[in-house]
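Box S2. Input/output pair 1.
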Amino acid sequence: MADESPLETTTNQAEQEMKKKDIWEKARDLVYYAGVSTAATMFGLLTAGALAPMIGGALAIGGMVGGAIKRKSLYEIATTAMKEYSALNIVIYPMIWLGNVTYPILTQIGHYGAAALGATTGVGQAVGGVVARTGYALTAYSGAFVGAFGAAEHMVGNYMNPKGLWKSVSHNFVNRWKQVSLLMAPALSLTANYVHNLAIGIGNYSVSLPTFAVNAAPFSAAMKIWPPGEKKNEKAPAQNPYGMPSPAPA
């Protein structure tokens, strides 16, 4: 067997060095994401209570299932789950605040709209409020969260470096917005009308879970399996976040 040439030896050494560097970078990323996830959990608990990690956990679990179905690497599945979990915990309180401020306004707009159309009873005005809140939740509110979540996910995924933030958030925004509004329509519609928890029966037992947590897992899995469409030959930026709206309590 002939000895390796100097060129082959140099190439093998370079490949080994690249593998070592890759392992080190992945280990560093995992430690970083674990730390950010811990800090984000504390922030979510302090600002939104147990709601934040419950919805974030459901989002992460669904994404892991979808990633596994798409045969992603364990490293990619783990880092993506921690990144999205952290982003959700960071932005859920601002979205709760937004809902608390805007949903009552939409209720009044719905009442006035119903009255303008001839509704004179409380039932007619209540229907107007439901229509106004639901329409808002499926459009402007959902879009606001897609942007906010995308920004948070970009920051987490880039070691808190804002470089490229606008490009990351705006990339494929409309398609992500439409898919989020479609797949999260049940939770968006229910929470917009103050149904914040669902009773889930398991055998002889029943447990109450946040409405968004129930919807978040299948939503996240579907987003991984069928990602929002992109234009042909369009290159995605380093971060390609999407968002999931959070509930606004009554």
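Box S3. Input/output pair 2.
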Amino acid sequence: MTVAKIPAALARYRKVAEAASDAETSFNRVVLEKRRMLEDQRRTAWRRFHLLDMIWRAVQPLPDLDDATDAAMEAVFKDIGWIGQTGTVDDLPEMDDPVLDQLEPLAEAMHALAHGQEPDRAPEAVLSGFEAWYQEQRGMSFYELLAGRSEHPPVPSGGQDAG
């Protein structure tokens, strides 16, 4: 190879190296987007579980539907900070009554299951309807209100099984 051909060869290798760098950057961007999506799905799933578990624990020991529904709603609204720890659903600001109205059927469905009855609507359907309604009305996921209260530890890095 002559001295004159070395810069041309280096330029070709540089283009190959730059293309490899660009491909890696693009791949990393896709992986990061996928990771963020999966992290969001995990957080939402655990927050959803936390909400359902909170309602279940409130309705399970109470045979009376009204008492159970009130207890469940108080637990939820205390957890998100909309009423104080010694408050009741009666303390909920009037502007939040529609949220109460939309969430109560979930407590009622969970109560029916807890006491061996068939609910009018499956809790999954009620929850799905509530989630869509809240998103549409408030422009955010209801589960953003539960941020920090119901987090589950992140999955161990490197794809290693923690067990």
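Caption for Box S3: The first helix runs from residue 6 to 59. The chain has a mean pLDDT of 88.
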